[in-house]
Design brief:
seven-stranded mixed sheet; 30 strands; globular; DUF2169 domain-containing protein
Length: about 475
């Protein structure tokens, strides 16, 4: 199959295969957009290439993913990802403030009222009727577009879990012993947040983390045997990070903060632990979550609900791993490409509440307190919050598929990834289309094209006209070629 790219954007075709070993073609196209003072999205002069592999914020072993490879085979939904910094309203140091992400359909005018008619086709409507109709026309209002995604997060300045002084801890231990564990006094406290102007909204500032001590660390000798990894597991570790003698991570977010185990506190003699600075309003991180984590009793679902950001959900997340299907000895010994229960939703990288239906290409993205006051295109609302509204440019990508038989048809591509980087003034769209490999209708060539909505609507109107003109001939051709609309 030949692939021809008629657009100015990086695009590539590659192969895919499903759970039943059925092969298919994939075409992915990436667009890079930017904006200025008017907040109007335009295509950037430098178009970034397709992302060939997962892009980490730092060393892969101890950082988080900014974006995943564009060479995935299929995404059932659209990922909305925002890699941003939270800025306090009006740029004033604030202990706590809120940020918001909204994706919505464009606003529309209310419906046009029907024009009045006379008592019959020979009599014009009266002057008073026309005057009332004109008044109704002038009174048409703007109807807000449907919200496809709305997500808020709470952001605060630096704060810590601090160990209480030893006399208080001693009293707590005595009280717990005297009451047979019925009464407990916390040995830690959560400090009040310090004022902050800017806080990165990413996995490193959200709840999560890991407890790790390597064999060469001085603290390794203070790790009790019951917390150590088996000798064979230590020996089998790669040398990239050193070899861990003890290691436990929050599967939902290994890069975060606030999740540590008691053996690490004891080994490192910690008296303070960084607390998360980004949280969900409905799942605030509390002292109880920290102490449960110390004891290794924090429920995995609770831990997952505490992770808060607008970024990529790691592939190590238990819920993403479950979507990969059953990888057992039977599968390992088979020639199958994928487990039968593999779910392509595994390729959706955004958090579940940031996965929406495919975008159409004219949606509006609204950010609140996710760009600096005074940034290009930003505005200040009546509450002093910094807002940025970006409307997609009303273009649509297609592929023209030419079959070996000479037939050809248009297949629309879908936007399955939207990434916004406000600090860099960049917005990325990834379009994708999947085409079946059929021995009875082999594909000779695929051509990537882009049309404006007006051009698209004109082409559709011409095709509809052609259908009407051809009539039964069109229906017969469609039946012979599997029901696709040919042009």
């Amino acid at each position: 199959m030949d692939f021809i790219n008629h657009t100015p954007f990086p695009a590539q075709d590659f192969g895919g295969v499903d759970q039943h070993d059925q092969e298919f073609h994939v075409v992915a196209l990436r667009q890079t957009l930017t904006w200025g003072e008017s907040a109007v999205l335009t295509y950037a002069h430098k178009q970034l290439p397709l992302c060939e592999e997962d892009h980490h914020a730092g060393p892969p072993e101890n950082s988080y993913v900014l974006q995943e490879s564009d060479y995935c085979q299929y995404k059932p939904r659209c990922d909305v990802i925002v890699n941003a910094t939270a800025y306090a309203p009006q740029g004033k140091p604030t202990r706590r403030f809120r940020v918001k992400l909204v994706v919505r359909r464009p606003n529309e005018l209310s419906p046009v009222p029907p024009r009045p008619e006379g008592i019959n086709q020979f009599v014009a409507p009266s002057v008073s009727q026309l005057s009332a109709w004109e008044t109704e026309m002038r009174a048409r209002t703007i109807l807000p577009g449907e919200q496809l995604l709305s997500k808020q997060l709470d952001v605060c300045g630096e704060r810590y879990f601090v160990r209480r002084f030893w006399p208080i801890r001693a009293v707590a231990a005595i009280l717990q012993y005297a009451t047979l564990g019925l009464m407990r006094l916390p040995g830690w406290r959560l400090t009040t947040p310090l004022p902050a102007v800017a806080v990165p909204v990413n996995k490193q500032y959200a709840f999560g983390g890991r407890s790790r001590v390597n064999t060469e660390d001085k603290a390794a000798g203070r790790i009790a045997q019951r917390h150590r990894l088996p000798a064979d597991q230590i020996a089998a570790q790669p040398d990239g990070e050193g070899r861990a003698v003890a290691h436990v991570a929050c599967a939902a977010n290994p890069a975060g903060r606030g999740y540590v185990r008691q053996w690490l506190v004891d080994a490192l003699r910690l008296s303070t632990v960084r607390a998360p600075q980004v949280s969900r309003p409905d799942y605030p991180v509390g002292l109880g979550d920290f102490t449960q984590g110390l004891r290794g009793k924090l429920d995995s679902k609770r831990a997952s609900s505490l992770v808060a950001d607008f970024g990529v959900r790691p592939k190590s997340h238990p819920e993403r791993i479950a979507l990969s299907g059953t990888v057992d000895e039977s599968f390992a010994n088979s020639a199958a490409w994928l487990p039968l229960d593999f779910d392509f939703a595994m390729w959706n990288a955004a958090e579940p509440d940031q996965q929406i239906d495919y975008l159409q290409g004219d949606e509006v993205i609204e950010l609140t307190n996710l760009c600096a006051p005074g940034a290009s295109g930003a505005r200040s609302d009546e509450g002093g919050n910094t807002t940025l509204a970006l409307a997609l440019p009303e273009n649509e990508c297609h592929v023209l598929v030419r079959l070996v038989s000479g037939e050809m048809f248009l297949s629309p591509m879908q936007i399955d990834t939207l990434i916004v980087e406000p600090d860099q003034q960049l917005l990325h769209l990834v379009w994708r289309v999947v085409l079946a490999k059929s021995p009875s209708a082999p594909i000779r060539a695929v051509e990537a094209r882009m049309y404006s909505f007006k051009e698209r609507d004109r082409i559709r109107a011409e095709v509809d006209t052609l259908k009407q003109q051809l009539g039964d001939v069109w229906d017969a051709r469609a039946t012979l070629t599997g029901g696709v609309d040919h042009v």
